[in-house]
């Protein structure tokens, strides 16, 4: 399953993807022609990975409001 999403301020999407990669969350950059962000989570994706993404998203929201 691919979960696609956009940030309210689209100019922050590159910073989000770069910061996420720095935290070990790879491959969040969306489609090259459409943009946005994408989290790929398949059947065997560990729950800890979901929790790490949620924690990162909350912290990014807190610091970039």
Mind explaining what this structure looks like?
With 65 residues, the chain is of the alpha+beta class. Helices cover 43% and strands 20% of the residues. It has helices at residues 13-22, 47-64, and strands spanning 2-5, 29-31, 35-40. Strand 2 and strand 3 form a beta hairpin. The longest helix is centred in the C-terminal third of the chain and has 18 residues, at 47-64. The N and C termini lie far apart (27 Å).
The number of distinct β-strands equals: 3
N-to-C CA distance? 27 Å
How does the helix and strand content classify structurally? alpha+beta
Assign a percent range to the helix content: 40-55%
String of helices and strands: EHEEH
**Could you say which overall geometry the principal axes of the C-alpha atoms support?**
globular
**For the residues shown, what is the average pLDDT?**
92
Number of helical stretches of at least 4 residues: 2
The proportion of residues in beta strands is 15-25%
Sheet with the most strands, sense and barrel status: 3 strands, antiparallel
Could you name the ranges where pLDDT drops below 50 across 5 or more consecutive residues? none
What order do the strands of the largest sheet run in, or round the barrel if closed?
Answer: 1-3-2
Q: In angstroms, what is the radius of gyration?
A: 11 Å
């Amino acid at each position: 399953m691919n979960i696609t999403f956009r940030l309210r301020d689209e100019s922050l999407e590159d910073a989000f993807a770069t910061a996420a990669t720095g935290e070990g969350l790879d491959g969040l950059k969306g489609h090259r022609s459409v943009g946005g962000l994408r989290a790929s989570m398949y059947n065997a994706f560990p729950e800890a990975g979901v929790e790490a993404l949620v924690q990162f998203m909350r912290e990014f929201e807190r610091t970039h409001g």
